[in-house]
Amino acid sequence: MSYIIDRRLNAKNKSMVNRQRFLRRYRQHIKKAVSEAVTKRSITDMENGEQISIPTKDISEPVFHHGQGGYQERVLPGNDQFVAGDRVPRPPGGGGGDGAGEGNASDQGEGIDDFVFQITQDEFLDFMFEDLELPNLVKRQLSGNEEFKTRRAGVSNQGSPGQINIVRSLRSANARRIALTGGKRRKIKALEEELEKLEAMDPALKDHKRIEAVLTEIAALRGAIQKVPWLDDFDIKYNLQVKYPVPHSKAVMFCLMDVSGSMSQATKDMAKRFFILLYLFLQRNYERTEVVFIRHHTSAKEVEEEEFFYSRETGGTIVSSALYMMKDILEERYPTSEWNVYGAQASDGDNWNDDSTTCSTLLIKDILPKLQYYSYIEITPRQHQALWEEYETVAEAFPDRFAMQQIIDLTDIYPVFRELFQKKTA
């Protein structure tokens, strides 16, 4: 039996195995701290590491020890107020001990601080995006710089010594020897039968010259058989390895953000936080994923990442302008036979007059039939307006491809994000 001992060290020469075991053991504490950290951080500080605090009582270890056992006699101090069976009244004022309360200063007693440690950026992101996935990611296509894997493709007469196929080589050598010596072996067998008959004859009638000739011929045939090599160069067979391209799932995510005048700066910051989480999730978990950023007010515009998150342009509100642009880009650049298409839209729900009906019609007829999944985030503490009501009809038509969630304040962003992209169990 083989034993593998992992002695990897982290940056401070501590055991990496022990660290991973510790992270697994206190996973729930760390996930809770990561969830709280996401809501408190600034947008530019979203992907750094985090300091985790674990209450001391949660890291205490059970201890086995010997009990006192046996028969013991003790002398205890008596009293002149109570006898057996008396009820002891509760101390006035709610009682209490001599120690200091939690979070209060005291000139007596001592406490134990919480256990605090630092997790790295990679560990922070791992916990932040644990158990999340893009739904319905199924379409696979060969394109671009492909990754190749090798697989067996039979045998070849040429190759490297490390690829020798011993079984096929011995089989080939045996077949060659049988083919080259089969006729001689059959002739030897016939001669041996003839020799037996000659030797079985009456001694007076034996043909000694014929017996000697048969023996000479048998010896010659056996010598010829022995000269056939046991293994020749062209008997050696090599495993043939060929490369074949590995198909990959290609996905594109359309990020649609409302930047109209009705979106306050706080609302825009929450929308940006949501899209930054989505962007980090895609960049970390998927290699072949493209992101299309679309900002809109009365008109829509495809922008780069920097402009999408930091531009201050604003205006009125026509949500359908972003959906029309998404439809056009999808038809021009991303054929649905090759791409898994996703969409995420963030808005405060305000829209111009009857434009909400246009939005639902666009989604139902032109966009959602081509998409794997579409999520709508409404960032508002107010009651829902016409856009939400129209999108409810979309959710009824496409229950598996369309999801809606509301964000009221910063604490809702991360739970809503996890709810939208939670890994589905089979």
TrEMBL record:
Sequence segments annotated as region (Disordered): 81-110
Coiled-coil ranges per UniProt: 181-208
Domain of life the protein comes from: Bacteria
Pfam families: DUF444
Residue stretches of biased makeup (Gly residues): 93-102
Keywords tagged on the record: Coiled coil
Family per similarity comment: Belongs to the UPF0229 family.
Matching NCBIfam families: PRK05325.1-2, PRK05325.1-3
Official protein name in the record: UPF0229 protein GCM10025791_44360
Organism: Halioxenophilus aromaticivorans
